[in-house]
Amino acid sequence: MSVARDILLLLLAFALQTTWIDFLEVSSLKPDLILLVLTFIALRKGPLVATCMGFGIGFMQDIYLPVDLGLNALAKSLVGFAVGYGRTRIVADNIQVQVALIFGATLCHDLVYYLGTSAIGLIDLPYFWLRYGLGRAVYTALVGSFVSAGLSLKRQFFPSA
User: Fold this and answer.
1) How is residue 70 annotated by DSSP?
2) Which of 3, 77, 90, 161 has the fewest CB atoms below 10 angstroms from its CB?
3) SS3 at position 27
4) Which residues contact 159 (CB under 8 A, 6 or more apart)?
């Protein structure tokens, strides 16, 4: 049941990312809701589940926009594995740690994506990573801080659920 809930959360994030997220665009930057959900799954479930779910949802993104087929699956799998593997060495319930992990996960994801994409040359990689990657990481971490605070309040007021 827990895996089904995580899959549904990722599918909901995918639906929101492809339709509704354009309303939150600020200076051509959008938060990555799929990566946000994947980071929380990796923190709770570990590297194996996060890698498999990262591959699955990344492959769905690649099918939706097949310019660089497999690149989203690779990037999300790597990030899911890295966050899931590192969860035992950190205090994963701390909001500041979660926000820092979301920030780092978004930066790493964008670096892998920009390295593999055929849309930009390697000479433009630092500019794209600093301009768009850093902005997306800050924006996703900001959204993640609100999600993390909401989940913390939920655990505080409804401990058994």
Assistant:
1) T
2) 161
3) coil
4) none
User: Please, where are the H alpha helices in the chain?
Assistant: 2-18, 33-45, 47-64, 71-86, 95-116, 125-128, 134-157
Q: Answer whether 12's CB lies under 8 Å from 51's CB.
A: no
Summary mean pLDDT of the chain: 90
Please, what's the b/e burial string for 48-75 (b: 16 or more CB within 10 A of its CB; e: otherwise)?
ebbbebbbbbbbbbbeeeeeeeebbbbb
Cα gap 53→45, rounded to integer Å: 11
Q: Are 38 and 7 in contact (CB under 8 A)?
A: no
Whether the full predicted model's pTM is greater than 0.85, yes or no, is yes
- Domains, the chain, in order of start with CATH, read 2-157 (1.10.1760)
Could you give the CA distance from residue 36 to residue 141 in angstroms, rounded to a whole number?
A: 8
- What number is the average pLDDT over the span 77-86? 94
